[in-house]
Amino acid sequence: MFVADHGADAGQGAFAEPVARSPISLPGPHELRNGWRVATRASTATLTLSDASSLTKVVVRAAADGPLADTLPAFGRADRDGPVLRVGSGPGEWILLAAAPGDPLATALPQSSAEFVSVIDVTHGRALIRLTGADSARALAKVCAVNLSDGKAPDGTALRTSVASVTTDIVRDDHDGTRSYLLHCERSSGQFLFDSLFEAGAEYGAETTGLAGHVI
Prior knowledge:
By secondary structure, the protein is mainly β. It has a domain at about 55-125: Alpha-Beta Plaits. The protein has three helices and 14 strands. The protein has helices spanning about 105-110, 135-140, 190-200; strands at about 20, 30-35, 35-40, 50, 55-60, 80, 85-90, 95-100, 120, 125-130, 160-165, 165-170, 180-185, 205-210. The strands form three sheets. The protein has a six-stranded mixed β-sheet, covered by helices on one side. Strands 6-7-8-5-9 form a five-stranded antiparallel β-sheet. A three-stranded mixed β-sheet has the order 1-3-2, with no helix packed on it. A hairpin with a 2-residue loop joins strand 6 (about 80) and strand 7 (about 85-90). It is globular and about 50 Å long. About 40% of the residues are buried.
């Protein structure tokens, strides 16, 4: 599909190549990154909400007690392997997140011929949102019943729960000492979840921001 995009993007010229669009619509300027139309609005707010849906998202399933499981994060934890964030999203299930497709994802997933492993790219079927700021847990508490305090959910915690009545994977992934969460859900619920989080963060001065280069 070839799209000529005008309006808010007119100053940057028309997109004359395939464009993938996020399920989340944001105002302001956009640019093309890795084939995706990505918002680039800057914000200096202490609580920010960004659409990270353009990140590559791969779901891996294997035996919870098999050889591959021994090399990946435990259920409920997340870690980094170079540029890839690896999330233990369930028993025998992991989500790999990277800024772009290619070799980093392949090297982050150890090869094993001793068991059956399912690897599915769900990039275009899921939405991904990042909420960053000291008040992010307070904003989440308005739409999520899980205790997200440091004692219960420190940096590197992964869990699956209901956020604004949407089944959501939450990963605490702090950046430079600032509390930050990634929220992953089905594409069809992306805009609703984003809007619910933005409303929840309104009293803390939440603003939307573009996808930062260090998002993963």
